[in-house]
Write a structure and sequence with these properties.
- There is one protein chain.
- By secondary structure, this protein is α/β, with parallel strands linked by helices.
- It folds into 2 domains: about 190 residues, Rossmann fold (3-Layer(aba) Sandwich); about 160 residues, Phosphofructokinase domain (Rossmann fold, 3-Layer(aba) Sandwich), CATH 3.40.50.
- The chain is built from 13 helices and 13 strands.
- Strands 3-2-1-4-5 form a 5-stranded mixed sheet, with helices on both faces.
- The longest helix has 22 residues.
- The chain starts with a strand and ends in a 40-residue tail after the last helix.
- About 0% of the residues have low confidence.
């Protein structure tokens, strides 16, 4: 096939986003199509900072499947409408034309799906044949249409295992030391990761004893009463809280007042806030943890199911693009819970972009502090299986660093803040 394929990564990376990159490159190579990669997402495309992946060996590309992070760099940058930022769209088409890019695959979450959808509409309008496919990725599991999002299964597994292990520690020390452990997880508007923590416990007295979801308004008095009752009954209490928990006024408990590049409120840490509240009101000794980047980069404990999902959507993305399926995203369709079965199907980007999937009410217990059996049936298959990376003699995982050889630029330099 004539022309090049451009692949780019966007937004917060995951433990398995490089598995999608691996699939994209390996599948394209089978079709004799050269893959270029934009350095740092759409920013690299605008700056004409393009990586020639044909310079990488087959073994290096294969190693991407078990390497965390974003091999080509990612970004938080959202394209506005073509009416607002026509110069940026014209620049992208100039870069695509200069390097004979006929297919563009953008690997990211909700904002990235929106960007891909916008770009899919301008190629023809600006006179350049272009097929655009979005590749799903997000630890938040909040993309619409798809049953689950590549990246979520691994962070869910990390969360459940961490809660299980840390709670054994707390139980050991509760008699004379820590009575309350608070662990904060990601999830601005959707409580999928917080819900995954519930997999750590099977009975009422198993940790986590309290899960605070962004879908449920935080009630300080009820929360403190629940902590107190749990400590008096069990001897200790593990709390898992989503970063996006809000008060009755609709304000994030941990909002610090600033905004990120996508316009989202920056959240400053709700775990220490709740831990201090417990100490002040109840007098219990406490510990808190905020895994932050650790939860989304923990490739050593990735879910095998998640890795398979990530590879499958990357492979399908190339196949859809080469077949001329414009403005679509390969999504995961669950066909059975037990045994767990799934398949990949194309979905219009317009149905994914700017739609957010929050945790269903049926997944949250009536008391608002835990998960239901329906949630457990949905979540458990996503964390199953191990896919450990190879280990070196030093005892550390063997992760790959690519050469990332840059193509020679053909166009004048470009500043991102150009209008």
């Amino acid at each position: 096939m004539q022309g090049n394929l451009l692949y780019a990564q966007s937004g917060g990376v995951t433990a398995v986003i490089n598995a999608s990159a691996c699939a994209v490159i390996e599948t394209a190579r089978k079709h004799k199509v050269r893959v270029l990669a934009a350095r740092n997402g759409i920013i690299g495309a605008l700056r004409e900072e393009l990586i020639d992946t044909s310079k990488e060996s087959a073994s290096a590309i294969a190693a991407l499947r078990h390497t965390p992070g974003g091999a080509f760099g990612s970004c938080r940058f959202k394209l506005k409408s073509i009416e607002q930022s026509r110069a940026q769209y014209e620049r992208l088409i100039e870069v695509f034309r200069a390097h004979d890019i006929r297919w563009f695959l953008y690997n990211g979450g909700n904002d990235s799906a929106d960007t891909a959808n916008k770009i899919s509409q301008v190629g023809k309008a600006l006179g350049h044949p272009l097929t655009v496919v979005g590749i799903p990725k997000t630890v938040d599991n909040d993309l619409a249409v798809t049953d689950c999002c590549p990246g979520f299964g691994s962070v869910a597994k990390y969360t459940a295992v961490s809660v299980l292990e840390a709670s054994l520690d707390v139980a050991s020390m509760a008699e004379s030391s820590t009575k309350v452990f608070v662990m904060e997880v990601m999830g601005r508007h959707a409580g999928w990761i917080a819900a995954a923590a519930g997999l750590a416990g099977k009975s009422a007295d198993d940790a986590p004893h309290i899960i605070l979801f962004p879908e449920i308004t935080f009630d300080e008095e009820a929360f403190l009463a629940r902590v107190k009752a749990t400590v008096e009954r069990v001897g200790w209490c593990t709390v898992v809280v989503s970063e996006g928990v809000r008060n009755k006024d609709g304000k994030f408990l941990s909002e610090v007042g600033s905004r990120d590049a996508f316009g989202h409120a920056q959240l400053g840490g709700v775990a220490p806030l709740l831990a201090a509240l417990v100490k002040q009101k109840l007098g219990y000794k406490y510990h808190w943890a905020m895994p932050d980047y650790l939860q989304r980069s923990a490739r050593h404990i990735a879910s095998k199911t998640d890795v398979e999902h990530a590879y499958a959507v990357g492979k399908a993305g190339v196949e859809y693009a080469l077949a001329g399926k414009n403005a679509v995203m390969p999504v995961i369709v669950r066909t059975s819970d037990a045994p767990y079965r799934w398949k990949i199907e194309p979905a219009p980007l317009a149905k994914v972009a700017n739609h957010e999937k929050t945790l269903p009410k049926s997944f949250i217990r009536r008391d608002g502090y835990g998960i239901t059996e329906a949630a457990r049936r949905y979540l458990e298959p996503l964390i199953r299986g191990e896919d450990a990376p190879p280990s070196g003699r030093d005892g550390l995982p063997k992760y790959v660093r690519l050469k990332n050889a840059m193509l020679k630029q053909k166009l004048p330099s470009y500043r991102i803040d150009d209008k």
